[in-house]
C-alpha cells in the first residue's frame, strides 16, 4: 500500500490515509506495552504467592522438627525451645511501666518526646519528625506499645461502628510499610479526628521500609481518638511473617538497644488487634476474607490473643487437640488469609498456604446469615487500588501504591456515608517530579519483575539444566521453544506465559531454537563463596530466606551470631527434611571456613550475604555510570 | 527435536503462542477474556488491524447473546487463521515515515503538537483525548516542543 499514489488523490484523502496509518501503528505499540505490563504484573503476583507457599514449607519444617524432637534432645539446637518459648514475661505490668519511665533519653536526642495520655501535639510532632526522616526514641516506642497493649486488651474481637456520629468513615487497605502512601492519604483526606474517622484494614508492616513509623502513627492516633480510629489485624501482623518479610529486621536496625523488647511487645500488641469491624450492622470489614465456616457470633467469643496463625498452632496443641481450639484457629486464619474467587464454592487456598478461596455463593450466604449488605476486604494488590467482585458484594481495597515496583499500581481508599454507598479515591506516589511516560513506567516495572524471575531460574539451575539436557540428546546446547517452555513451567511451577516471556529470558540461535544456557548468563554470585560445591551453593541460595528466619529464631538476643554447632545441626536437619543429600564432611568444612575468627560462632548475616547474587548487566551499568 | 518445518508444527506453535497471549488476559482462569481486551491481544501477537477491522472480528467472536466475554474455543480458530494468512501485516518504518511526511505539509521536518493533534483526533479513526495525551507525552521533544518524527526511525 502506498500513500503517495496518483495526483488525482486529494490532499485530504492522503492525509486521512496517513492519519489512519499512524493511528493503527500507535495502537499496536500501546497494545504491546499493555501486554508487557500485564505479564509483568503476573510475574510479581506469582512470585509473591510462591513466597507465601514457602512460608508453608517452613511451617512444615518446624512441625517436622517437632516430630523429631526426641532425637534432638541434648544434641540438637535449642531451636525447639526457642519456638515453644512464648514470651514469658517475668515482670508485672507496673514494674514494666516504671522501667520504661526510667529510661533516660539523652539531651542530644532531637526527636519527639511523647507524654501520655497523648495529645494532638504529640501526633503532630510525630508526623513532622517522620517527614524529616527522624526516628522516635526507643523509650517512647516502648511506652506507646505498652499503652496500646493496655488499650487493646479491653477491645472485643468484632467492633461495631455507626455512621451516625460522623459524615463519612474512611477505609484504607494494606500499607505495607509505605509511609509515603499514608502521608498522601492524610494529605488528601485529612488527619483522623472525631469528624473524620478511619478504619485501617491490616497489613501495616513488612516489605516497605517504614513499617515502624506507620505503626507508631497508627497506634498514636488509636490512643488519641479511641472511638474514631480503628485497626483490624492483617496476616502480616504476625511475628513469623515479620521475620520473613522484613519488619523484624527493620526494628532491629533502627533500635539497637531496645529492639528485642520492642519486638516482644509488638508480638503481644499484634495478637490483640481486633479481627473485624462492622458498620451500621450492614458492612463487614476484615483483612482477608471469609469461608463457609465463618460465623461472627462464634468469632466474637474467640480468645484472639491466644490464637496465633501458623507456627504456634502446631506447637501449642497437645494431641488430641481440643476441637474448640482447632476451630478457633481455623476461623481466625480464614479471616486473615482468604481470597475471593469467581466460581462458586469454598476451597483451600493452596497458593497462600492458609485460608480459603471463597465464591459468590459463600459471600451471599454469609451476608444473608448476618443481615449484611457488603464485605470490604484487602489482602490482594489491585492495579487500580480497588476492585469489586461477587456482583458488587465484595470490595477489595489496597492502599500501597507502587507495591511491586514504581508504576505498578495505584493505591485507593473508600469513603462510606450513612447511605452506605462507597466512594473510591485513588492516588499514586511518585518518586520523580516529571511524569514518566507509559513506556518508561512499563520498562522499569518489567525490568524489576524480570530480575526477580531470573533469580528464580538461577536458584533452580541444576534441575533446569538436567531437564533441558534430557531434550538435547545430541548435546547441541539448543532445544525448541516448546520444550524450553515446558521444562521451565514444570520445574519452577509458576503459572506464567513462558512463550511470551522467552525473548526476555533466553536467546535464540540462528536456526530458531532456544540456547537454554543463556537463561543463566547474566547472573553471578555477589561475592566469592565459601568453598562449597556448586550444588550446595545453589541449595543455600534457594533457601536463603528460610535459613535466615531459622537463624533469627535461634539467635534470641539478635546478636547476629550463632554457634557453629547450632549451625551444623540446623543445616543437617533442614537438608534431611528437604531430602537433599549432603555429607557431613562438606558441612563441617563449610562451617569451619565461615568461622572466620575461629571463636566457634558465625556471623550468619555475613554468611547469607555470600549467597546473594548480582545481575551482571546492573554491574556493567554501575561501572559505566 | 521435532521437525521444525512440518505444517503441523507451525500450526501447533502458532496456537501455543495464541494460547499464551490469551492466558495473560484470562483473569479468572476460565478460558474467557473481556471483549474489550481482544484488540490488545490481537495486536500483541504482531498484527496491525484498524479499529474497523477489530470491530468486524469482535462481531464474529461474540456470542449470540453478547455476554461481554469471548471464549477461547471461538478465539483460537479465528486467530489462527489471521496469523497463518498473515492478515493485518505490520506497518514498516518506511511507510510510517511517509505517513508523517504527508502530514508535514510545509515540509518543516517536524510537526507541531497542535498539528498532529488535529489530524489524529479529527481524521481517520480518531484518538481519544487520553490516547493523544499519552502519545504526545512520549513523542514531543521537551526542549523544542515539537515532534521530531525523523528521530523515531533508525
Automatic annotation (TrEMBL), chain A:
The keyword Iron-sulfur appears for this protein: no
UniProt-listed PROSITE patterns: EF_HAND_1, EF_HAND_2, SER_THR_PHOSPHATASE
SMART domains in the record: EFh, PP2Ac
MF (Gene Ontology): calcium ion binding; iron ion binding; manganese ion binding; protein serine/threonine phosphatase activity
Residues in EF-hand domain copies: 459-494, 542-577, 582-617
Sequence intervals crossing the membrane: none
Family per record: Belongs to the PPP phosphatase family.
Record's protein name: Serine/threonine-protein phosphatase
Organism of this sequence: Cyprinus carpio carpio
Record lineage: Eukaryota, Metazoa, Chordata, Craniata, Vertebrata
Automatic annotation (TrEMBL), chain B:
GO molecular function list: calcium ion binding
Domain EF-hand intervals: 13-48, 91-126
Residues spanning the membrane: none
Domain of life: Eukaryota
Pfam family, one: EF-hand_7
UniProt-listed InterPro entries: EF-hand-dom_pair, EF_hand_dom
Matches recorded under SUPFAM superfamilies: EF-hand (SSF47473)
Protein name: EF-hand calcium binding domain 2
Natural source organism: Cyprinus carpio carpio
